[in-house]
Amino acid sequence: MIIQIDSMETVIAIQNEAHNELDSTLIRRIHQNLSRVRHWGIRHIPREDNRETDGIAKQFKERRKGLHVF
């Protein structure tokens, strides 16, 4: 699994397994989930290169708002 994200702060926080000031419940939970994946990597990408993916994610989010499960 390859994770690409446009937040360098997040990349550093996830890469660091040692506790630091960025350590949070969310980061610990991400590490727990990633420990179940055999091979993974994370890398920073410029925000400009992430626009298309961000647009797709926003479309999905908008669709979920209209989704009702009965």
From TrEMBL:
Record domain RNase H type-1: where: 2-58
Q: Which domain of life is it from?
A: Eukaryota
Give GO terms: molecular function aspect only.
nucleic acid binding; RNA-DNA hybrid ribonuclease activity
Q: What is this protein called?
A: RNase H type-1 domain-containing protein
Give the species this sequence originates from: Gossypium harknessii
